[in-house]
Amino acid sequence: MSDLRAAVMDRLLPPSLGLPGAGTLGLSPAIAEAIFTPIMEALPDSFESASSEERTAALAALEAHLPSAFAALLQAVYSAYYTDRRVRDAIERATGFPARAPQPLGHSVLKPFDPSLVQAQRGRPALWRSN
Predict the structure, then answer these.
(1) Is 8 exposed, middle or buried (0-12, 13-18, 19+ CB in 10 A)?
(2) Which of 28, 61, 110, 115 qualifies as a cystine partner to 5, CB 3.0-4.6 A?
(3) Number of domains forming the structure of the chain
């Protein structure tokens, strides 16, 4: 079962540009069993041995058949993947930018906010009622 989970995760987030695939990171324990169960039951038995195109087609069919379960799985896989330190390190190496939340430290590459950009909006009447 864990090989099947890894195959699904690698198809959702395959290895690319020096970043590892989601399935190869061993993230499946971080993905709730409740999310994987309906997905695993709906996948064809041949998913692990299928080609990339066949896996993509199977996942697309599953997304159409179980949209809520698929959305939950996709969100869980993306969350586990992009919060993994190995992935963040690879992103930093690939882009040269720190892989961290922009706040509270901000990003030095952003210019300071220019209040004149909203001056025209400030001169317009309010679009809401006060009572």
Answers:
(1) buried
(2) 28
(3) 1
